[in-house]
TrEMBL record:
The lineage of its organism: Bacteria, Bacillati, Bacillota, Clostridia, Eubacteriales. Keywords: Signal. This is Dockerin domain-containing protein. The keyword Signal applies. Residues 147-227 form the Dockerin domain. It comes from the Bacteria.
Amino acid sequence: MKKTFKKIAATLSAAVMCAIPMASALSANAAAGPNARCTMRKIYWIDSTAYVKKINVGFTNVREGCSPATITAIAAGTPSFGGSAGDVYYNCGGTLTANGSNYIKGAAVSFSVLCNSPSCYEEGRNVYCYAYKAGGVQSYNSVHTVPAFLVGDINKDGYVNGSDSGILNTGLCQNAFTNVSYDGVVTINSNNYYYYTFDIDDNGVVNANDLTMLRKYESSSTYKFER
Ligand SMILES: [Ca+2]
Ligand SMILES: [Ca+2]
């Protein structure tokens, strides 16, 4: 029982909403509406052979039509994140530090932004992830990312619907995700997809929990993706 509680507590602290709009910013650009359900996500991952002990991340996105980013520490470690809201942009960032003798590798950190529509999503200039080895030595070329994508839109048609969960379901039935790396390609019925696009709950692996969450989203008009 104690262990379970600890795990839940760790999960909660790993995902941090980095900036809450302040009352004084009421005259600023309108944020995401209460019915906003489009989650745009940008992910960083780290080479498994780079011996990275710490990463330093920063992220900014335009307020208009979108929420502040939620930073999720996908990799194990100690997160320290924070943020603020300006008139035009939300800003956030911080560090994720590996614990003890561990290293940060694979899917490391993500930024999830809730938007009225995908077209509202716009990053500022100050978006980065730097990696450091023991002793604070910067690790170059070990950090990878891709442009932000609409979570759940697996077939990239701009909508999240039964076609997307159908692909995920087929992939799980065919064991298509077995032994595929986080940034690897998954082939399902002769079509290629990136593994990370199926990781709906943002925990670094693809399994039945992602399908459950995607189906819940598709069958509801109010449910929003949350880790
Ligand atoms: Ca789709
Ligand atoms: Ca997952």
